[in-house]
Model the fold of this input.
Amino acid sequence: MCGVCGCEQEQHDSRRVTVERSLLEHNRVHAESLAKQLAAHGIDAIGLLGGPGAGKTALLEATFESFGREAAASEAVIEGDCATDFDARRIAAKGVRVAQVATGSLCHLDAHLVEHALHDLDLAGVGRLWIENVGNLVCPAPFPCGENRRVVVISVAEGDDKPEKYPAMIAGADLLVISKADLLPYVDFDVARCIEGARKVRPGLPALVVSARSGAGLDSWLAWVRGEGG
Amino acid sequence: MCGVCGCEQEQHDSRRVTVERSLLEHNRVHAESLAKQLAAHGIDAIGLLGGPGAGKTALLEATFESFGREAAASEAVIEGDCATDFDARRIAAKGVRVAQVATGSLCHLDAHLVEHALHDLDLAGVGRLWIENVGNLVCPAPFPCGENRRVVVISVAEGDDKPEKYPAMIAGADLLVISKADLLPYVDFDVARCIEGARKVRPGLPALVVSARSGAGLDSWLAWVRGEGG
Done:
């Protein structure tokens, strides 16, 4: 019983934590196995994470447009959303293979859902798999999904304080993409503060400022995607 | 064991669902009791929900600036964030009583956390309590926190498809605030589509288009807050 308010929340929380730990451990093992399978097939799996409307799908659209025919041949996408297939349709319109995962009330993808989605994808000739998580800057953090690199996307409309407010997501990132840079003239967003905040959490984290709309920063982004640094 | 991939995810999920149900039920009872206590003290408790950077805190700042002295005397705020006290400082700078709840890895507030935060607030003379949840458009949905009205904030920078992509949050809303309207000229956001999407989920849901920055729409918002419709 809680010493302050006399309710039984603490017992509930303790049960929740126990179940969560076992889920996280199960997922970690599953994700490692999945990552090995993807690597064995020569597939570079990139996790794309960020809050709702951070611009994850728009970044993929711009990426595939830049790649042109190369994209349709060698890219594949898993789209995680609570509901709708809006994002899968946007990706399919670029001619890229895509599988939609509707998570319902679940707030993140996990290795199990990704493995099932892979059954729906023809991976012949695929060299890169994008795993776009549910729009959520909290819950996907501790659930690897078989990706070997993680990109966290934060838009300039969200505010430069977000890396410090959502540190768990940044702690697991391999790249921070500051998106919707075309909006910079119209919002109070200090790029340096945002990057500094992210590096307080994860020292040395690479960061790129990108606009899928104007194309600014896309060259550096595409170089990073191709593993040429950035 | 899962029939497709042979893993034990389904047992884990089933345990998670069992624990979640008991947590939700415990929270529901706790939230109802809290709502009754607040009502008995004549306090109008408003839940403020939305994704990261939707503009929840900016809306509160603009609200308190409009209220002037009235705000400092009769408003109080509970700020939920995974980390930092940035938002509590912004509210305190307006002279309004505020308690910060750092949720850590927890992705939402619950009635228990709110009740504890209330112990840190002097509620003498307070007529309205704002409960600003963690920036998350998924997880806070099924966790009432003692509020008697719920506002869901979605910014025009996030995209007009968000109500349909995050239906659970909209299903529990009493008002949709479409925020950052000053950015409308610079983004592809169809206000009518956004409201229509929300009303597919919750027929008749009231909606307001607001800019905390320019002040557009604030009069209607303040009327709604005061219970004068909107």
User: Anything to note?
Assistant: DSSP finds nine helices and seven strands in chain A. Residues 9-40 of chain A form the longest helix (32 residues).
